[in-house]
Structures are given as structure tokens and as C-alpha cells.
Specification:
It contains 5 helices and 8 strands; from the N terminus they run βαβααββαβαβββ. With about 200 residues, it is of the alpha/beta class. Strand 7 and strand 8 form a beta hairpin. The N and C termini lie far apart (about 45 Å).
């Protein structure tokens, strides 16, 4: 399977709590729900196409617990059958089991266990949210594709997908589009370490 990271970001790189004010209030975060005003039918169609390519889902503990709380009750949502029915993996050193079935808990050497899952036949193993897990797997060279959806908003604070001190990574733009409400949808592939240069050199 290809390991695909899907993240909602603000213009200042915040990935925390895009879906509602109460989605993730950790560290006193009180600015959640910043992504929702920019949703439109065009992006919902894109997201549905992406989800249709998934053969399994991968989460960090925090995102898993939020999704496990909410998705089983969203029976009328068009994505619910896939979200609830797909095999789910959660990287956690504190969870022994997962109640959102079917769930497998990955602990110990998470990158090695993710690499084993990734080696199985299938289309996509998708990470939804779970920014810290995504960071670690990108640094480990396990990510095949990043789908970053950037909302036209500056949140001002909150956890970022790419924090200061993170591992450097070069990316190659595969595709991009902009929705009517201003969501900027970018698909990237990792391209090794970032290149450096000097402006005007050789001119």
C-alpha cells in the first residue's frame, strides 16, 4: 500500500482542531473549527474520491480517540460506511485495544510496524490528521504522498504540521487546485532532502 498523509492546514501551518471548537482543546487551544467555513461541495467530492482509494486508515492516539467518538454516530454521513468499516491502525503506547472496530493497536517500534502494514497488498494506507505521527513517518522515509488542504485563514496559534526543529524534507508538487471557497488543495511527493542555492548564481 502507498502511505498517504492528508492534512488540513491554516496559512500559518496550524493543523490542530480544524473540524470544531471542541475537537482538540489540548494545551488550551480555543480556536478550533477554523476549516469548516471554507468547506464546499467541490472539496467534499475531492475528499470522497480520496477516501474511496483507501484500503486502511492510520491514526495517532489523539485523532483516533476523537474519530472513534464521533464517526460511529454519524450514520447519515456519506463517508460513514467507509470510515467505520475500513481496517484501522492506531499508533499508541497507552492504548491496549481500540473500540472503533476493526482496529489494530501499533506500539513499540511504530515506524517498523507501519512499514510492515505498508508492505501489504492494497491501494492506500491513509493518515487523516495525526500531525505528529505524520511528521515522524515523513522523517522515517515512509510517506509516499502528502495531500495538504490549506484554508485561507491565519489561526495564530496551535500545533503545526511542520514545527520548528523538524526534519527537513524536499517535496515535488504533483497537482494543485483551488475550490470556490478558497481551499488550496496540493498533492506532493517526497523528493529527498531540500536543495539549496544562491539567488543569481551563474547569471
Amino acid at each position: 500500500m502507498r502511505l498517504v498523509v492528508q492534512e488540513f492546514l491554516s496559512l500559518d501551518g496550524v493543523s490542530q482542531g480544524p473540524g470544531s471548537p471542541d475537537e482538540d482543546r489540548s494545551d488550551g487551544f480555543d480556536r478550533g473549527g477554523w476549516f469548516v467555513p471554507h468547506l464546499d461541495e467541490e472539496f467534499v467530492e475531492v475528499a470522497g474520491t480520496w477516501l474511496g482509494n483507501a484500503d486502511a486508515l492510520l491514526f495517532g492516539r489523539r485523532t483516533y480517540e476523537n474519530f472513534a467518538r464521533d464517526w460511529p454516530t454519524m450514520t447519515g454521513h456519506p463517508f460513514a460506511p467507509l470510515m467505520n468499516g475500513l481496517p484501522k491502525y492506531v499508533a499508541s503506547h497507552s492504548l491496549a485495544t481500540g473500540a472503533w472496530n476493526p482496529t489494530t493497536v501499533l506500539n513499540g517500534d511504530v515506524p517498523s510496524q507501519v512499514a510492515e502494514v505498508r508492505s501489504r497488498p492494497g491501494r492506500e494506507l491513509q493518515i487523516h490528521g495525526s500531525a505528529r505521527l505524520a511528521q515522524s513517518l515523513l522523517a522515517a522515509g515512509l510517506v509516499d504522498e502528502l495531500r495538504l488542504v490549506i484554508a485561507p485563514v491565519v489561526v495564530g496559534r496551535g500545533r503545526r504540521l511542520f514545527p520548528d526543529g523538524g526534519a527537513p524534507a524536499g517535496l515535488r508538487l504533483v497537482s494543485h487546485r483551488t475550490t470556490a471557497r478558497g481551499l488550496s488543495v496540493h498533492t506532493f511527493e517526497p523528493a529527498g532532502l531540500p536543495e539549496q542555492g544562491v539567488y543569481g548564481a551563474g547569471a
